[in-house]
Amino acid sequence: MSITANDQSAAAVPRKGSATAPLSFLEKVGYGSGDMASQFYMGFFNIFLLYYYVDVWGVSPTGVATMFLVTKVIDAISDPAMGIIADRTDTRWGKYRPYLLWGAVPYAALGYLLFLGPDFPSAGKLIFAYVSYSLIMLGYTLINVPYSALLAVISPVSAERTKATQYRFVMASMGTIIIGATAKPLVDWIGGGDELLGFRGAVLVFATLTVILFLFTFFTTTERVRPKKHDTSIKEDLTVLRNNTSWIILALCSILIVVGLVARISSTAFFTKYNMSLGTEKTLWWMDSTTLIITGGFVAQLLGALVTPSLLKWADKRQLMIGSNLLFAASIFATYMIPPTMFMPTMLLYAVGIFAFGIIITLVFSMYTDCAEYGEWVSGHNSAGLTVSASMFALKFGSAVGSAVPGFVLGYYGFVKDQQQTEQALSGIGMMWNIIPAFFFLGAAILMVFYRLDGPTMDKVEADLLQRRGEA
Predict the structure, then answer these.
(1) Are the beta carbons of 304 and 313 closer than 8 angstroms?
(2) Is 144 exposed, middle or buried (0-12, 13-18, 19+ CB in 10 A)?
(3) Are 455 and 256 spatial neighbours (Cβ–Cβ below 8 Å)?
(4) Helix-strand-coil percent breakdown of the chain, rounded to 5?
(5) How far apart, in whole angstroms, are the C-alpha atoms of residue 146 and residue 122?
(6) CDD domains, per this entry (predicted)?
(7) All residues at 6 or more sequence positions from 159 whose CB lies less than 8 Å from its CB, including other chains
(8) Are the CB atoms for 224 and 155 separated by under 8 Å?
(9) Which among 301, 99, 105 is positioned nearest to 210, based on CA atoms?
């Protein structure tokens, strides 16, 4: 299965010296802009989608939670399929970059559809949610599997890919900061008291920005590693992946991390509204207290991404992953120990956890490309698209489960939309914000003990691959 283009530049391989040269500032910013584009949607969804479905549009919590889980069956097929297709794509722009051009507008349009909020009866709303949510996840697959795989071919040098990863998550963090600081005020301003209208207008703003940023990524990046024509079978590719133990561990770890994160942040609007009794009055500039907590967390995430390269001077990726996951878990347990009326300690502990996540997510995607290189080193064939498709499935599956867990908890503890909540319901909201997410981060820390691609191993892999590519 191959997409071809009649252009001699597709066959051109850069000279070794130029291919290994440091990436320019513009290209690193350009690459990072792709994840900022993604965060304008996924950050928005992770924070507000459960709240929108349950407390704004009026779908039952358990119905939404079930929908989040059931639709992941599609992703289990679409994510690796997209990786396989991208690995076999061949155009004058490369293997992975073209999908940024082709997928930007469809992805933006499907995100707007998700918040269209038609006035259907309960069953109709749930059906619409199933269809629109499934479509936006397919759109995410179409553009983000190739985007993540692009990191593996943007440079043959691991250190340069790590720098690109840092820019990626600095830009992603800036995207989530913008979402955290402006989304709720934007909803309030556009809606003028009508949250349904407000969400519809706000997502249109972010849809437009998403298209612009993905196109910027397309025009500012280059695929320097041009693997030979992909002539292995799908079965052979899957076998190499299955035998890559570190990839399996990283994929499982990623799912636990994202479940824990999304369970935490998608519960925030409920916890601040009902347990902390925070209103909509402005606390700082245009931000109310809930917006301030969310924004503070995302500023901390940006700091976590920024300090990751410095921390790697003192610990390897595996050690840093273990420590960061333990720190996030500890911050959640610590929040449980203080009364919800203590605003500043609650906000600071929340920020500590998201700071740890900034380190974690920067490491995760760098480690996925390490797994891709290791797979090429073992098999002789580059399958970066298929390898990093696990990261997309982890993000989407983790996001779905992370949103579903609070949904089930809300339903079990008797949550009722826009009502004075019972002590039982408040207890359930407290559990889903302060206790449950911590166990997922503890599990991720334990899993990472068994990850085996350490620094000396990757140094050898990189040196051998550079020699092979130079000879080719």
Answers:
(1) no
(2) buried
(3) no
(4) 75, 0, 20
(5) 37
(6) MFS_MelB_like
(7) none
(8) yes
(9) 105
Q: Which residues contact 32 (CB under 8 A, 6 or more apart)?
A: 164, 167, 168, 169, 170, 171, 172
* CATH number, span 23-218+232-465: 1.20.1250.20
CA distance 442 to 326: 6
Measured CA to CA, the distance from residue 291 to residue 100 in angstroms comes to 31
DSSP 277-292: ---SSEEETTEEHHHH
Gap between the Cα atoms of 100 and 96, Å rounded? 8
Chain-centre distance for alpha carbon 16: 33
- Rounded Cα–Cα distance for residues 118 and 234 (Å): 42
DSSP letter string, 390-430? HHHHHHHHHHHHHHHHHHHHHHHTT--TTSPPPHHHHHHHH
Residue type, 108: A
pLDDT, tens digit (0-9, with 9 covering 90-100), for 94-105: 889 999 999 999
Give SS3 for 91. Answer: strand
Q: Is pLDDT at 16 greater than 50 in this prediction?
A: no
- The Cα 305–Cα 312 span in angstroms is 12
Q: Can you tell me whether residue 94 is helix, strand or coil?
A: strand
Tokens 């619409």, residue? 128
Q: Are 200 and 132 in contact (CB under 8 A)?
A: no
Q: What is the pTM of this model?
A: 0.71
Distance separating alpha carbons of residues 414 and 408, to the nearest angstrom: 10
Residue with tokens 């963090």, as numbered in its chain: 173
**Diameter over CA atoms, the chain:** 71
Nearest Cα to Cα of residue 114 among 209, 207, 214, 211: 207
Cβ neighbourhood burial of 439 (10 Å; 0-12, 13-18, 19+):
middle
Pair of tokens at residue 102: 């082709």
Residue type, 355: F
Token representation of residue 309: 């390269």
Tens of pLDDT, residues 325-369: 999 999 999 999 999 889 999 999 999 999 999 899 888 878 887
The first and second tokens of residue 252, run together, are 């499982």
